[in-house]
Write a structure and sequence with these properties.
The chain is mostly beta strands and about 160 residues long. It has a single domain, classed as Methylpurine-DNA glycosylase (MPG) (3-methyladenine DNA Glycosylase, Chain A), CATH 3.10.300.10. The protein is built from two helices and six strands, in the order E-E-E-E-H-H-E-E. It has a six-stranded antiparallel β-sheet. The chain is globular.
Length: about 160
DNA sequence: TCGAAGATTCTA
DNA sequence: AGAATCTTCGAA
């Protein structure tokens, strides 16, 4: 299964009240304090996993939440993991895409820069316009424009 | 130990 | 608009 990342949000540490790392290190958010390029996966609302990529050097919390992807390959497998769902809504949300890609906590903290069960690579050069907005689903730090998505892409989670 | 909140999703 | 659902965290 393969997909193109089309929507992300940035989270930081003590200067970002919306971040899990705002109040310091805990067992859950420990990956955010690790080396950049690793997975930070958490479980929320009793049902959903969310996938982040750590961004800062070791010791400094930071992560990017993957909010939506555009399916490229393995569409049938994704549909099997999320039955009876229209194609456009298969992966257009942080909880949806982890379900469609069978991502759970067993992949927490793995290195996403190297080939493995889950990893990220740079695709062929492509030109698109990146739009930004406030982050979704948070109650603090709502003024920051730290949500980034590909303008006009049909798989972003919201208009 | 307990209670409240949550980087969501689905249904009515 | 509201429920579902359970883990995590911080306070007691």
């Amino acid at each position: 299964m393969t997909g193109k990342i089309v929507e992300v949000e940035a989270y930081r540490g003590s200067d970002d009240p919306a971040s899990h790392a705002f109040r310091g290190r805990t067992p859950r958010n420990a990956p955010m304090f690790g080396e950049a390029g690793h997975a930070y996966i958490y479980f929320t609302y009793g049902n959903h996993y969310c996938l982040n990529v750590t961004t800062q050097e070791s010791g400094i919390p930071g992560a990017v939440l993957i909010r939506a992807i555009e399916p490229l390959d393995g569409l049938s497998a994704m549909k099997r993991l999320r039955p009876n769902v229209p194609e456009l809504t298969l992966t257009n949300g942080p909880g949806k895409l982890t379900k469609a890609l069978a991502i759970d906590k067993t992949l927490n903290e793995i290195d996403l820069t190297k080939a493995g069960p889950l990893f990220i690579t740079v695709a062929d050069e492509e030109h698109f316009k990146i739009a930004r907005s406030t982050r979704v689903g948070i109650t603090a730090g709502t003024e920051r424009l730290w949500r980034f998505y590909i303008s006009g892409n049909r798989y972003v989670s919201r208009k």
